[in-house]
Specification:
- By secondary structure, the protein is mainly alpha-helical.
- Helix content is about 55%, strand content about 5%.
- The protein is built from eleven helices and five strands; from the N terminus they run H-H-H-H-H-E-E-H-H-H-H-E-H-H-E-E.
- The strands form two sheets. It has a three-stranded antiparallel sheet with strand order 3-4-5, with no helix packed on it. Strands 1-2 form a two-stranded antiparallel ribbon.
- Helix 1 packs antiparallel against helix 3, helix 8 packs across helix 11 and helix 10 packs across helix 11.
- The N terminus and C terminus are likely disordered.
């Protein structure tokens, strides 16, 4: 039967149509590349033409499939009229299975229910018997592909200089994780403000604060915080705008524009302002040379709050 043979050639027809669509899309792209607006036209053709080509291919395939089924039905009616039911049964047109069922049966190599008695095994467990089915071809193929991949993976990652071993991949993953943790902690530290800031005592933090102080604060407060004609002395216990960690942090963050103290919140990160404020408070009592006379009011820690984040005015 000629029309029945068409159904077996569906994959070939689909491959042919897809190839033709790809060639047409490639020709259109090459033509667009030669024009002055090559970039925009290429992008449009690569996305629009190929989508349209795919729709055309799908429509053509469905049309062929529909026409084949229609012609098959016409052929069934014709044979039924001319030769009767017996001829239709002989050519197996009455119980013709859909293409997807044929593919599924081929992929799984299933035995029809009416023939299962031929593959029954001898043993019997309380009336339960076992079928001697073969492994599905797709499962066997995946099994061999897995073996081949395993051999390639071991050779590439463990016996050549191209790939990374499992231990090396683990070390790289741990390094990436540590970077992510540090980035997260940095973001968390930048969330500090004048209501949550606390005094830092770690030498590393104070060293960073000192470095920033030397870069940005010395023109107005001196090299050692002793003060000059512009800014006050930061090493005594007298403060113009509060001498606690929160007050110093707030002064650095918002500044005192009317007295020439600029706001640093747009230039220094919150976590770094905390380090600078902590370093400034660590200068208390250092008595540097040429210290400026005290200005402002005396600040002193409360007896029950030695952390430095709560101070009272005296």
């Amino acid at each position: 039967m000629v029309m029945r043979n068409i159904e077996t050639k569906y994959p070939l027809i689909l491959i042919f149509l897809l190839t033709a669509a790809a060639v047409c899309g490639q020709d259109a792209t090459e033509t667009a590349a030669q024009s002055p607006n090559a970039t925009a036209l290429t992008w449009m053709l690569e996305n629009i033409v190929l989508i349209l080509a795919g729709l055309v291919v799908f429509g053509a395939f469905m049309a062929v499939f529909y026409m084949n089924n229609m012609l098959l039905q016409v052929q069934k009616i014709k044979l039924l009229q001319e030769h009767g039911v017996e001829v239709l049964e002989e050519v197996k047109l009455l119980d013709e299975k859909p293409l997807w069922q044929k593919f599924l049966q081929l992929a799984e190599k299933r035995v029809p229910i009416e023939k299962e008695k031929d593959i029954l095994m001898d043993h019997d467990y309380d009336g339960i018997r076992e079928l001697d089915n073969v492994l599905p071809p797709w499962w066997v193929a995946m099994f061999y592909v897995t073996i081949a991949f395993g051999v390639f993976y071991l050779g590439y990652h463990h016996f050549s200089d191209n790939g990374l071993s499992s231990a090396q991949e683990y070390e790289l993953a741990m390094e990436e994780a540590q970077k992510e943790v540090k980035a997260y902690l940095a973001k968390q530290s930048d969330a500090v403000d004048e209501t949550s800031v606390v005094m830092l005592t770690d030498a590393t933090d104070l060293g960073i604060g000192e470095s920033i102080f030397q870069t940005k604060c010395t023109p107005c407060h001196g090299l050692y915080g002793e003060g000059n004609s512009i800014g006050p002395n930061l090493t005594d216990q007298y403060w113009l705008h509060g001498g606690g960690i929160k007050e110093v942090f707030s002064t650095i963050k918002y500044g005192v524009p009317e007295k020439g103290m600029i706001s640093w919140k747009s230039q220094i990160r919150a976590s770094d302002m905390q380090k600078v404020a902590s370093y400034i408070l660590s200068l208390q009592g250092t008595n540097p040379p040429n210290a400026k006379e005290p200005q402002g009011d005396l600040w002193e820690e409360k007896a029950d709050e030695k952390s430095g984040d709560e101070l009272s005015l005296k």
